[in-house]
Amino acid sequence: DTAYFGPEPEFFVFDNVRYDSNHHSSFYELDSAEGFWNTGANGSPNLGYKIRPKAGDYPVPPHDTLMDLRTEMTLTMESLGVPVEIHHHEVGTAGQCEIDMRFDTLTTMGDKVQTYKYVVRNTAKKHGKVATFMPKPIYADNGSGMHVHQSVWKDGQTLMYEKGAYGDLSQISRWYSGGLLKHGPALLALAAPTVNSYRRLVPGFEAPVNLVYSQRNRSAAVRIPMYSKSERSKRIEFRCPDTAANPYLCFAALLMAGLDGVKNQIDPGCPADFDLFDANEEELARIKSTPGSLEAVLEALEDDHGFLLEGGVFTQDLIDTWIDYKRTNEIAPIAMRPTPHEFYLYFDV
After folding, report:
1. pLDDT digit string (tens) for 235-278?
2. Which of 52, 217, 302, 312 has the fewest beta carbons under 10 Å from its own?
3. How many CB atoms lie within 10 A of CB 317?
4. pTM exceeds cut of 0.85
């Protein structure tokens, strides 16, 4: 009778951004005082302590230049009724951040995500900076995801916990995970809904692209958090979504997939506790991966959306409109445009 959601939205804070796309030119340029490319910058005083690529996870000042900014964001959220549990610098160079809200019920959590994004953007602007929730703004560094923790309850008791089972997961938890994994490709059309999302969801870069569950692997689509032994904290974490997602559609779709798993007792298979980065080809061949493009996940949604229509939660018209909009307004315009890197590769053929 209750579903709790705890998203972890990530974002970048930049000091400058420029971009344009027209008939005769296309470019983007980002900059951050933290960016590793600025160690040799000359102009305003350069005080060093830049964050190397993939080395930004929990650094302390002076490497982390954004602690006070995130604290102001956090205090503003708290004043607006959005409880915050933690904030920290994220893995990426050049100002990647994360602020984690306390979990709540589905619709309320959707409201809080929208408030969160509004506060982050406007607090950054107040300080002469710009915040973006674009999933992959920087090449060859971590993208911004939105891992979503989920648990289901009845009569005030969690249905997720079974002491002594794998990860202390109940059978309902395993079925719920099975639903997420089975419907994972279709879910991504709502949970990672942009062309840019698939610059992040790339195998081999700590991206959650493997459709397995595990209590260890960060590249598993479903992860079981193990840092608390508390029965009431038992939950599963779906790691594929990103912050471009509409939270209301994303959370509703995740819940419908999980409940479909429970209803149909979908087996999630064996947990993947071996190192997915060191796995051999035979082991990897047994593991399904998330699709590699927005077009591929839209095709998956076309083929697999019956679980979303249960109880009238989603409608056929909404799904059809979503797919048509994405193809017409996002996939087609990008597919027809040459990119700057194509000039680098092909101009002198």
Report:
1. 999 999 999 999 999 999 999 999 999 999 999 999 988 766 67
2. 312
3. 8
4. yes
How many residues does the structure list for the chain? 349
d(CA 123, CA 24): 35
**pLDDT-derived band of residue 227, with 50, 70 and 90 as boundaries?**
confident
Closest alpha carbon to 31 in 92, 91, 123, 94: 94
Residue 144 CB neighbours (<10 A): 24
Residues 6+ apart with CB under 8 A from 150: 3, 4, 5, 6, 176, 235, 236, 237, 238, 254, 255, 258
> What is the per-residue pLDDT across 58-97, written as a single tens digit (0 to 9) for each?
999 999 999 999 999 999 999 999 999 999 999 999 999 9
pLDDT score of 42: 76
- How does 52-74 read in b/e, with b if 16+ C-beta sit within 10 Å? ebeebeebeeebbbbbebbeebb
Kindly give the pairing relationship between strand 84-89 and strand 157-158: unpaired
CA distance 295 to 315: 21
